# Entry
Amino acid sequence: MTTATTRDQLLDHAQALIMQRGYNGFSYRDLAERVGVKTASIHYYFPCKDDLLIEAIEAYAAHASAKVQAIDAALPARERLDRYAALFRDTPCDRVCLCGMLAADFASLSERARQSLQAFFRMHETWLAKVMADGAREGTLRSSGDPQADGRWLFATFQGALMGSRLFQDPARLRDVVAAVQREPDPTPA
# Structure
């Protein structure tokens, strides 16, 4: 078993703090206390908070992308959507998506951080657009007829459900999102 490096610990704790408090809700002092290092040590790894933020976004986005891309594209659309939703179910009620939380801090972020957030959102929206288009063809998911719009509103709905789950301490709000777009199978025999 390998022990996480100080740098890894700093990134992990930064991600947790961002998901709980947002970008402006923590300092290097908070990280130093959690990891057990001096704040000067943090500057060795991340000279400024924006450097830490970019690394945190990139690590989080890569991890999320790997999970989404691991969903078998050969599965029916409804099952892919269920598996996608399951990725969110493990989010503790005291946290939200790191990139969703940072979107609220958009005005205080660097251009580079903003672009990283936009790329994260686009990846999810594009993936969901494909699933919604496939589901519309299969007759299993409700679509507006515009897959790109479906991907955008569905991802926004997942982000909102995470926030609502946190606010009300009710993880069932995510299930409501998936149920809202599922069509019941046609009872007419073929």
About this structure: The chain has nine helices and no strands. Residues 50 and 110 are 7 Å apart (CA to CA). The chain has a mean pLDDT of 89.
